[in-house]
Design a protein that fits this description.
- The structure holds 2 protein chains of 2 kinds.
- By secondary structure, chain A is α/β, with parallel strands linked by helices.
- Helix content of chain A is 28%, strand content 15%.
- Chain A has one domain: Rossmann fold.
- Chain A is built from 4 helices and 5 strands; from the N terminus they run H-E-H-E-E-H-E-E-H.
- In chain A, helix 3 links the parallel strand 3 and strand 4.
- By secondary structure, chain B is α+β, with helices and mostly antiparallel strands.
- Chain B is 41% helix and 16% strand.
- Chain B contains 18 helices and 14 strands.
- In chain B, strands 1-2-5-4-3 form a 5-stranded mixed sheet. A 3-stranded antiparallel sheet of chain B has the order 6-7-8.
- In chain B, strand 7 and strand 8 form a beta hairpin.
- The longest helix of chain B has 29 residues.
- The interface between A and B is large, with 42 and 45 residues.
- The structure holds iron/sulfur cluster (SF4).
- Iron/sulfur cluster binds next to helix 2 of chain A.
């Protein structure tokens, strides 16, 4: 992680209809007991600085646009982590209010189960996500295809 | 009061007085109640045999009783209640959104939980036949020197989605309005047709941070209908869970207050206390947020009393240390004093509950005023402050931590037990109440003959107290005060939008 992201990976959170408890656990990630900064994770209020989107809630349909806009505003490579039973469809079944599964709206890379997942489970999930992000980085081509193959 | 009204008065299983009136008498009854200073606690609709019935719930403190006034709506409209009782406005909007019924001569109504881009068939609690989708809600105009500054709906780290329209002329806040439809999950609608045992799962998740408070109110309503008596030691277990919930919420509110005032050291300390309390919840009851502890008819798990004896005082002491440190930090006290004032008048007029009301001179607490369960045998001290600012609310929650701690010790000593009574099938309706960390939580349940829910009305304290947020924010505050006010209210959007 240190070598990949220059010791920092930025997280943006978004709530798509949670019960407020997953938010509480996410806030505690930065508290002394867990201190996610020591692992090189940081929260950012801006999606444009974010590498990772941490999503709670069952994907309320009325919120689709905001979710998509946030996701699109993030630079590549990016990764989506779904927090809790809600985005897995375990709390609300799919209906006119919610999608049920977050995957209907966003390409989810990692699901962290639990209702709520404890901060330790969240940390574990974040570390798994880092691995997935590393794969995405590896797959990226750092050669600008458009620029041709001019020798220099 | 006329003789017919007297004749339709009866006291039910839940100890609540029911008053059936006709459309013509409603206005008079509401006026009488308001004049007598009775507190309007809720207003909601329910479809019964193709007919819309509206109910008003009154709390008659200091008298230990609730009164429910109900009438069937025949022909369109009902009298504009918010003109006499301003506390009713939000619910008038709600009845319009959910049932398509406006009170007669209604002024502009606000949007609550139906999204602006909702299709005509967006699910509501009822569609009145032959009606079109409600026309657009009251437009919001900002003119003159002021501008509107939108915040949200996607907000800061670990914050719930909420849209705040801040109207400002520069720095000072002139007006503020909220939109919460991003979080509407249609819980009341989902509850219909479920059995109470199944429904509890969703009731807890309507507002997870008040899971015990709301589900206890729900359980009490169901137990009144089915006439189930919960053993005393089991009721005490519930009360311990509720006091645990109150203490961790107050710790969380304190941490949020520190964060909002950029007091990182204080925040870290409060979060240490919060984490200890959550771990204690998990060790004693098996869940950090106490989900799944209550069940209709009893509790599913008995707490580990040894763990409570061993760790409870330590965890609360941690919180006490934070409180003492904050009280002697002038830069902190300066920020919370005279910030976000809710006047005593507003608190009464808007029918606020919980620490927000108690910080504004309202001496209300259902544990003392409408004793239930284990609180029948306990003396509950109710701290009240009158300044109505963030400091007053903080003082109230700190004092409540002490009363909760004393209650826990008392309850544990009296003995706790797990276990639940099976619910016999029964039809009927009843009101349940409970003092959640955010204040009075009300649940009205109606069961059909198969014991399924016909209508469950959830009214968490958050649904009530947000209506004072704009008043508090407006009172001579600047932008940066808003997070402080929000932390001191400590409400959830989830509970409001449901
Ligand atoms: S997963 Fe559970 S705890 Fe998290 S928001 Fe959903 S209901 Fe609440």
């Amino acid at each position: 992680m240190q070598s990949l992201f220059g010791r920092s990976l930025h997280i943006r959170t978004i709530d798509t209809g949670s019960c407020a408890v997953c938010e509480s656990e996410i806030r505690l990630l930065a508290a002394p007991h867990y201190d996610l900064h020591r692992l090189g994770f940081f929260f950012t209020p801006s999606p444009r600085h974010a590498d990772l989107l941490l999503v709670t809630g069952p994907a309320v349909r009325a919120f689709d646009q905001a979710v998509k806009k946030t996701y699109l505003a993030m630079p590549e490579p990016k990764i989506v982590v779904a927090v809790g039973a809600c985005p897995l469809g375990g709390v609300y079944s799919e209906d006119a209010f919610v999608h049920g599964s977050l995957e209907e709206v966003l390409p989810v890379d990692v699901f962290i189960p639990g209702c709520p997942p404890s901060p330790l489970a969240l940390l574990q999930g974040l570390l798994v996500a880092v691995g997935r992000l590393a794969e995405k980085v590896d797959a990226l081509s750092f050669v600008d295809d458009e620029a041709g193959t001019g020798e220099w | 009061m006329s003789r017919e009204i007297e004749a339709s008065r009866y006291r039910a299983n839940d100890g609540v007085e029911y008053l059936r009136v006709g459309m013509a008498e409603v206005e008079g009854v509401v006026e009488d109640m308001t004049k007598a200073g009775t507190r309007l606690a809720d207003l909601f609709g329910s479809m019964e045999d193709e007919e819309l019935v509206i109910r008003l719930v009154y709390g008659r403190e200091p008298e230990p009783s609730y009164a429910v006034v109900q009438w069937p709506v025949r022909g369109g409209g009902y009298p504009p209640l918010s003109e006499v009782a301003p506390a009713a406005f939000v619910e008038e909007c709600e009845i319009y959104e959910q049932f398509g019924l406006k009170c007669s001569g209604a002024k502009g109504l606000n949007r609550l939980v139906v999204p602006p881009h909702a299709a005509p068939d967006f699910p509501r609690l009822a569609h009145r036949p032959g009606r079109q989708a409600p026309p657009p809600h009251a437009p919001h105009y900002v003119t003159g020197e002021a501008i509107e500054f939108p915040v949200g709906p996607v907000r800061g780290v670990g914050q719930e989605s909420l849209y705040m329209g801040l109207v400002t002329s520069g720095e000072e806040l002139i007006d503020l309005y909220l939109m919460v439809w991003h979080k509407h999950r249609g819980i009341e609608r989902r509850l219909q047709q479920l059995r109470p045992q199944q429904a509890l799962f969703l009731v807890e998740r309507a507002e997870g941070l008040s899971a015990v408070g709301n589900s206890w109110a729900f359980c009490r309503a169901v137990e009144s209908i089915t006439d189930v008596m919960v053993p005393e030691a089991v009721e005490r277990t519930r009360a311990v869970a509720l006091e645990f919930e109150r203490i961790y919420n107050h710790a969380a509110s304190l941490a949020a207050l520190c964060q909002a005032t950029s007091l990182t050291v204080g925040q870290a300390q409060a979060e240490v206390a919060l984490e200890e309390l959550l771990r204690l919840n998990a060790a004693a009851f098996g869940h950090r947020y106490l989900f799944g502890v209550l069940a209709p008819g009893g509790v599913t798990r008995g707490p580990d009393v040894g763990v409570i004896r061993e760790r409870f005082t330590m965890a609360v002491d941690e919180l006490r240390r934070v409180a003492a440190a904050l009280r002697s930090t002038n830069s902190f006290m300066d920020r919370v004093e005279v910030c976000g004032v809710v006047s005593i008048d507003d608190a009464r007029r808007l029918g606020l509950v919980g620490p927000v009301a108690r910080g504004s001179g309202q001496d209300l607490d259902t544990r003392r005023d409408h004793p239930y369960g284990a609180y029948r045998d306990c003396r509950v001290e109710v701290p009240v402050r009158t300044a109505g600012d963030c400091l007053a609310r903080m003082e109230v929650i700190l004092a409540e931590v002490e009363t909760s701690a004393a209650l826990v010790t008392e309850l544990v000593q009296a003995g706790l037990r797990a276990g639940s009574v099976d619910l016999p099938p029964a039809a009927g309706a009843a009101l349940g109440w409970c003092e959640s960390p955010r204040g009075e939580s009300l649940v009205w349940v109606s069961l059909d003959r198969e014991g399924r829910i016909r209508r469950a009305r959830l009214r968490p304290a958050s649904a009530r107290n947000w209506r004072a947020f704009d008043d508090a924010a407006r009172s001579r505050n600047v932008f940066t005060d808003i997070p402080i006010i929000e932390a001191s209210f400590w409400l959830t959007v989830a509970g409001f939008a449901r």
